[in-house]
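Board work, copied verbatim: DUF1214 domain-containing protein
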Amino acid sequence: MAENNNVLVTPETYIRAECDRQFGTIVKTAGGLNRFYHLRSITPLDGQSIIRMNRDTLYSQSVVDTSKGATITVPELPPDRYVSVELVDNDHYCPCVIYEAGTYELPQYTKYLGLFVRIQVFNPIDTDLRKDELDLVHKLQDQFSINANSADPLPEFKWDSESLQALTLQYQKDAAQYSSVKGMMGPRGQVNEDTRHIVVATGWGLLPEWDAIYLNYDGDHDYNICHKATYDVPDNEAFWSITVYGSDGYMEEENNIVNSSNVMPNPDGTFTVYFGSQENCGDVSNRVDVTKGWNFAMRIYRPGESVLNGTYKLPDAVPVQ
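↓ predict structure ↓
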């Protein structure tokens, strides 16, 4: 596929152009249509392709030609592990997210459809457990299958790359005015058509908010001082995680995650997270290392009502005395 053609990208065509670009990348990586590319390892610090990546899940990705009918078969899944299959069409709508085993007919809103499998990784920073954990996830990944009756090659990429990139950068700047991405991803007729281009530029393939909520925190704290905050467990039907980033949005420390599989709760069911080095914080549970300009994202998968309606709030982190 050519990467630089001459059809100018406008605000009206931006979403389709970016989806064409993303689909092309996935097909190239997978080695063709109607087949999965499985990410097999936890995101390494020196292999972060975009900002604010996570280590909570391993991904499998595919683009399917649905024009003559296609199905995805989801294997039997462990009851205690989050697994989802997100469908993203060529206009960046999400018709549905699949959570149960079975064979599903894929919708034909657009000829080409993206499939994104997410499988939870328990305690991803525990190197002693990681091999067995990844072996289990890999076996699950290999059991997903696609059956499609057509494999027409993607059309040649027709969009002008410079105008596409310029709009992406502009929309990424515009994103600062929004406190959340609510309403920016979901099925046709259930999204905000005036704002959904923002998430295409900043988080292409993002799950709809009823499938995952992302709460960001940036307290502008001195990283040389240990801070702590105590949290209620967010209402959810799957799991939650906190991932710490540096000022540029990239993970900078290996010890950067507290989640529902490795947290040490308080007697009352809350949990306290310590942000700082062991030297500054001492030998405490739920401690994450931080760097200058640290911030974090709390991801809540299959969030409950208090998260969806905004009553669940993140407290401010305070210095440890």
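The radius of gyration is 20 Å.
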